[in-house]
Amino acid sequence: MSSASPPVDRRRWLALAVVMTASFMDLVDVTIVNIAMPSIQRDIGASFSVLQWLSEGYALAFAIGLITGGRLGDIYGRKKMFLLGMGGFTLASMLCGVVSDPQLLVAARVLQGLMAAVMVPQVLSIIHVTFPAHERGKVFGMFGAIVGLGAVSGPLLGALLTQWNLFGLEWRPIFLINLPVGIAGLILGRRFIIESKAPQAMRLDLVGVALASAGLLMLLFPLTQGREHDWPLWGFVSMAGAVPVLAAFVAYERYKSRKDGSPLVELSLFRVKSFAAGIGVQLIFGISSGIFFLVWTLYMQIGLGWSALRAGLTGIPFSVAVSVAAGVSVQQLVPRFGRKVLQAGALVMAAGVLTYIWEADRYGAGIASWQMALPLTVMGLGMGLIVAPITDAVLSEVPREHAGSASGLINTTQQLGNALGLGLVSVAFFSVVDAADPRRTAVADIFADAFTHAMWWVAGGLALLFVLMFLLPKRPRNEQSAAGEAEAPADAAKVPAAIG
């Protein structure tokens, strides 16, 4: 490609270091917050709904902005949008680290998510135009390794920074650590990243973004806040009103497609049965993951009273198992067994969930970290069998000319599922906590009951996942599509979405 840097130009490796650092920063920020939530709650008096919004607000803003962020780079320049996103993400991180008001902290997290949606989509595009074709395979392999490292190190880094209480700042260093990294990235990125644009970029669909945002907020806000207000009437009215708003979004997308061919969502993709089923798989998988990761943290730290460091170390078997299984699934299992690997992943993960439920019931407040290692390892193996090959399975029958739009929609859907799962924690977990009497039941037992109740929701989601996977193609594609080079890292790029 003419816009790629020549192989002899060593600056391209510095550009790669910058964009990979940005990806690592985003991935860590997704996973680092959960482990610090109890410390945040104690320090600024945050309610449980605020804790939900700290993750949910980021995920929702990131999901809604992803496709638009990619188009902004195509239209105005990927380097320009990357630097804008990184600068905004760094500023939002600073705000997260200095505010003391819970609502302002949520607003700063939403801003972080929006800025990540501007920054992250540019990374693979910058790599594509910076490196010649014969180097991209190696570069995408490095990118996948960084993705895995970010997913694994986020919870542990969050635990260490919280436990160390640097300068008496409690949880705040988990955000403030982004400042020197972001500033260095801006300086180096401005110097070493080359500018590029798409020759024929799609137009922005701001009306579509507004309708999708309004519909999802009308659904998620009362779902998250309703519990603290004893489920008021306005909440049910808002959730019911989300249906016509989202229907209007679909109608407008059809109109936009006919008008200029630049809808936010390419609805014609859903005529491909395997893709429509795959979007359902991503949504349910995101919901199940969103529920698990939040309630798991609350169970260990608030229910069992464990420190952030102990909770972070307890999760290491899970992270390692995900990484190992992900590599094996793509390289060895999927080429031989196809769709059955994904279905086996759902069943294995469900087995881990059921084992966890049994252990939480059996050992109660006396459960130890080593006793959690078995269910977490089994769950991690199951998740690893799913997250790496799922994108290729969903894209297998999508027309080549729509591969880019389909890939973006897959990642967006999983982020939306994650946000929905975080919202459903109010029903799956906190409804049990609210119904218990702390004067008669120990806090550890209350949270253990709530955890097992929420885990049954996760198990149900995995069962539905297994059934939906029958609609996926039996075998992955045998040949790369025209957009194959851009799709290659997509499998790795979605690992943190699942883990976060």
Q: How would you summarize what this structure contains?
A:
The chain is mainly α and 500 residues long.
Can you tell me the CATH topology of the largest domain? Growth Hormone, Chain: A
**Quick one: CATH superfamily of the largest domain?**
MFS general substrate transporter like domains
Biggest sheet character: none
Unreliable residue runs: 1-8, 478-500
Membrane topology: Multi-pass membrane protein
Biased composition (Low complexity): 482-500
Region (Disordered): 481-500
Keywords: Antibiotic resistance, Cell membrane, Membrane, Transmembrane, Transmembrane helix, Transport
Describe this entry's structure for a reader:
The protein is mainly alpha-helical and 500 residues long. It folds into 3 domains: 200 residues, MFS general substrate transporter like domains (Growth Hormone, Chain: A, Up-down Bundle), CATH 1.20.1250.20; 58 residues; 232 residues, Growth Hormone, Chain: A (Up-down Bundle), CATH 1.20.1250.20. It contains 20 helices and no strands. The two termini are 35 Å apart. The relative contact order is 0.13. The N terminus and C terminus are likely disordered.
Key features of this structure:
disordered C terminus, Growth Hormone, Chain: A, 3 domains, mainly alpha, 500 residues
Topology:
Blueprint: H1 11-44, H2 48-76, H3 78-98, H4 102-130, H5 133-164, H6 173-176, H7 178-192, H8 206-225, H9 233-260, H10 273-303, H11 308-314, H12 316-337, H13 339-363, H14 369-387, H15 390-395, H16 403-435, H17 443-468, H18 484-487, H19 490-493, H20 495-499
Helix pairs in contact: 1-2, 1-4, 1-5, 1-7, 1-10, 2-3, 2-4, 2-8, 2-16, 3-4, 3-7, 5-11, 5-12, 8-9, 8-16, 10-16, 10-17, 12-13, 12-14, 13-14, 13-17, 16-17
